[in-house]
Each structure stands twice: as structure tokens, then as C-alpha cells.
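Lecture 7 notes: from sequence to structure.
We start with the chain below.
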Amino acid sequence: MSWDQAFTAANAVALLSWIALIALPRWPALIALLRFGIVGLIAAAYTVIVALFFFRVEGGGYMTLAEVKRLFSSDAVIVAGWLHVIALDLFAGLWIAERLDRHGIGRLIQAPILVATFMFGPFGLLVAYLVGLMPGTRRLSA
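Predicted C-alpha cells for the same chain:
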């Protein structure tokens, strides 16, 4: 499988997972599949790619912008970085959905928040925090 194909496959898995989270009933088995199956699988793929390719990028690292640019000159590291993003965004989306459910916030309000989290990660999380702080809702605690 090429890195382009791996990237495309990861995107397809992420998109289907988000559609399931937003559109399907939140059965415990579905949540477990998404949290431990999908997020776990993506995290495992990320870990393998990082272990095999991260330290092969000469001059790559996180201490300077130039090191990060060098690091992300590798297709393998770009795919790993993307897996990092989609795993953590989906994990955040699951956390948001469960908390909003617990606080009685309807799915029509949740849907745009979850789409925002899918597309723009921290922005969706911020919106979820703000919705949880609105009058008539309880704080979104852990």
C-alpha cells in the first residue's frame, strides 16, 4: 500500500466513524467500537509508523520550525501526523457526544458541534465547552 493509499484509507475510516457517531443511535457497542476499535486501530497504526520512520528523517524534530518542516518532508511522517490528528479528534468527538448526551443536549445541536470537531478539532471542542456552560446546562465535567 502506498502512502497515498494509506492516507485515503485513513480518511475513509475517519469519515465513516464520524458519520456513525453523528447519525446512529449511541449504543454502548458502537461507542466501544469507535473508541477502542477505530481509535485504537488508528493509534496502533500511528505508533508503528512513528517507530519505523520518525527517526529516519535527518534533521527532523520538534524544537524548531525548520526541524518540523524537515520531519514533515517524509510521506510516512505526514501520514503518521494525519493519523495523530484523526485519532485524537475522534476521541474528542466521542467525549463531547457522551457529555452532551449526559447533559440532555439534543442531537440537532450536537451535530454541528461534532462536524466542527471533525473538521477543525479544537474549535469544535471549544464550542462544546461553551454550549456546556450555557444557562440551563450543567458544566461539561470529566
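Points to note: The mean pLDDT is 91. The CA atoms of residues 88 and 96 lie 12 Å apart.
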